[in-house]
Amino acid sequence: MVRAIVGGNWGDEGKGKITDMLGAQSDVVVRFQGGANAGHTIINEYGRSALHLLPSGVFNPHVTNVIAQGVALDLEKLFHELDTEVLSKGVPSPKLLISDRAHVLLPYHIQFDTLEEMRLAEKAYGSTKSGIAPFYSDKVMKKGIQVCEIFHDDLLMNHLCELAELKNAMLINVYHVDQRTPRTEEEKKLFSLIDPKALFDLLVSFRERLRPMVGDAAAFLHRSIREGKKILLEGQLGSLKDTDNGIYPMVTSSSPLAGFACVGAGIPPWSIQEVTTVVKAYSSSVGAGAFVSEILDPNTAEDLRRRGGDKGEYGATTGRPRRVGWFDVVATRYGCMMQGTTGVALTNIDVLSYLDQIPVCVAYELDGRRIDEFPVTPLLDRCKPVIEYLPGWKCDITKARTFDELPENARKYVEFIEKSIGYPVSMVSNGPARESIIYR
Ligand code: GDP
Q1: From the alpha carbon of 236, which atom of ligand 1 is closest?
Q2: Do domains 2-94+217-439 and 103-211 have the same CATH topology?
Q3: Most exposed among 131, 206, 261, 270, judged by the fewest C-beta atoms under 10 Å?
Q4: For residues 304 and 326, what is the distance between their CA atoms, to the nearest angstrom?
Q5: How far is 45 from 209, CA to CA, in rounded Å?
Q6: What is the pLDDT of residues 380-435, one digit of tens each?
Q7: 222-270 pLDDT, tens per residue?
Q8: CA 42–ligand 1 middle distance (angstroms)
Q9: Is 305 close to ligand 1, i.e. is its CB under 6 Å away?
Q10: CATH topology for 2-94+217-439?
Q11: SS3 assignment, position 107
Q12: Is 316 a pocket residue for ligand 1 (Cβ < 6 Å)?
């Protein structure tokens, strides 16, 4: 049985909590796309952990955690995360399987990401500078290094020399790094050329730690499917950041859609039986890009931001304040559709408990006309939110364990969302803790 837990909005919907909860009942948890550019926050008996690359099953010793071939694998960050967020907290060493076909994200991907954002200046994408866009561009251009290459000295060295030739030409001719005067250690790295031998040494330094973790992830997953194991596909970010279907170009460089797991993890399209799309009871978005239901008044936004999640709406990777807005029916309906949703997990509903009335963006107004379909980016930039107000409930709801225990107005809020997006809300998350969950 394969189930995907994916985001229906712009990311940060609370997928980490839902995956951690459902991960306990799974045999396998799989990351199939993205890299260390977004973070999951997980709160359990080991405390609060921010995971960026590791699958959320790492806290459950019986779970096999797969980093599949679609992931942007930054080995430095992976091992750092394993040491600081998992092992140092006393969690038993997790079962980890890394696809031998996954590509490795190299320090120069981060360098190119940073230089490109600098070149764009005020037109920058608001990248997390984790190297994701240069990484996936290289992969598609057939200029990437696969994990399996790390175990072949000559092949790796030759490949790195070839890549360095091309990359150094770009560093000199596009970014003019040879003409810059670095002022800090960081700038020294940023304005330097690539030394293939240093890269070789770096990759080889991970080799022995990596060796027992590397294998044929697709074969393992096909076997697990045949054996009827419970497999959880863990998406990163959300539908609206999908390269093909999102708010292009303010998107991520891989596909956060459940369907992409068939490619990124190599599993059969027919194997995914359930798609649980995680959706937030209000909206939040990091980085630039159209955000129709955004709260523009700074005080109103800050009121919501500081109450959001378990520590306020600040990026798990960058610490940046997230842009916040009201629930967006148009964007969420589209986001759920693109995921192929079978059930919605509505999170963070407790965050709205302070409001007398709750604004909801029910449609967009485009050039004086009301629209219900999520439009392309140039039109999206011109859309204004059509707001309806729902009555608030003004009390703490984090202790409710059944739908009936929620106050009437909270139930009505959930039912309103369910009806307007057209997908069943099968779970309601009413607090950051694992126990704060209501199944319907
Ligand atoms: P993800 O990337 O989708 O996993 O989202 P994050 O984990 O970055 O962001 C979700 C934030 O919301 C985290 O701080 C969670 O601890 C928190 N969270 C998850 N579900 C709930 C909920 O129902 N209520 C509240 N208040 N916080 C939640």
Answers
A1: 2
A2: no
A3: 270
A4: 9
A5: 27
A6: 999 999 999 999 999 999 999 999 999 999 999 999 999 999 999 999 999 998 88
A7: 999 999 999 999 999 999 999 999 999 999 999 999 999 999 999 999 9
A8: 8
A9: no
A10: Adenylosuccinate Synthetase; Chain A, domain 3 (3.90.170)
A11: helix
A12: yes
